[in-house]
């Protein structure tokens, strides 16, 4: 696989490193574990990832299995090269410093150009959806831990839970401030701000470096 493996490829490698699986088993396991929330994944994406990984020598076919009257399915396992690639990729992901670009901050940056009621309606939609995700994720984590899964296996979910808790709380705060007028809305930036910005820029231009 040229360059860095994709996030889907890393997830596939991780599951095949646990034990040999056929691609559909990989997909269903991703869904069962909730890992499908990490990337946009479907059976086709998993099959494509397995094909590329096999082409690049990172996984290999190790057998076939049959379930009932269904066609035989090829099972795959990670090769030594695949295991090394997985280790490098996971280490790089953990230390990754590249910024993640998302649409929501762009919306926030340009929200002042919309009427307050439209902004409140859109943020309410987001808040309700994220609150539902938060409740579902919390239930999933509680269930997994109650069944005896060690915490080290759910650190990704634990981090997402913390981020969702903070985002829902922040959205509640913004919506409350919009409703009671604490967060003022409408009009261009105030003249005092524009004047202060011009004075600061003039000082920078007068003393470059």
Describe this protein with a few key phrases.
209 residues; mainly alpha; Arc Repressor Mutant, subunit A; 2 domains; two-stranded antiparallel ribbon; 8 helices; 64% helix; WH_DNA-bd_sf; Metal_resp_DNA-bind_regulator; coiled coil; WH-like_DNA-bd_sf; PadR family transcriptional regulator
- Write out the strand line-up for the largest beta sheet, numbering strands in chain order: 1-2
Number of DSSP helices? 8
Proportion of residues in extended strands: 5-15%
Rounded radius of gyration (Å) = 24 Å
Helix and strand composition category? mainly alpha
What helical percentage do the residues reach? 55-70%
Following the backbone from N to C, one meets helices and strands in this order, namely HHHEEHHHHH
Overall shape:
elongated
How many individual domains? Answer: 2
Number of strands: 2
The main β sheet shows up as: 2 strands, antiparallel
**Please, what is the average pLDDT?**
89
Distance between the termini: 45 Å
* Uncertain regions spanning at least 5 consecutive residues: none
Task: Describe the model.
- This protein has 209 residues and is mainly alpha-helical.
- The chain has helices at 7-18, 23-33, 43-55, 80-95, 103-110, 116-146, 155-180, 191-206; strands at 59-65, 73-78.
- It folds into two domains: 7-95, Winged helix-like DNA-binding domain superfamily/Winged helix DNA-binding domain (Arc Repressor Mutant, subunit A, Orthogonal Bundle), CATH 1.10.10.10; 103-201, no CATH class.
- The longest helix is centred in the middle third of the chain and has 31 residues, at 116-146.
- It starts with 6 loop residues before the first helix and ends with a helix.
- The mean pLDDT is 89.
- Keywords: Coiled coil.
- It comes from Cellulomonas wangleii.
- It holds the Pfam family PadR.
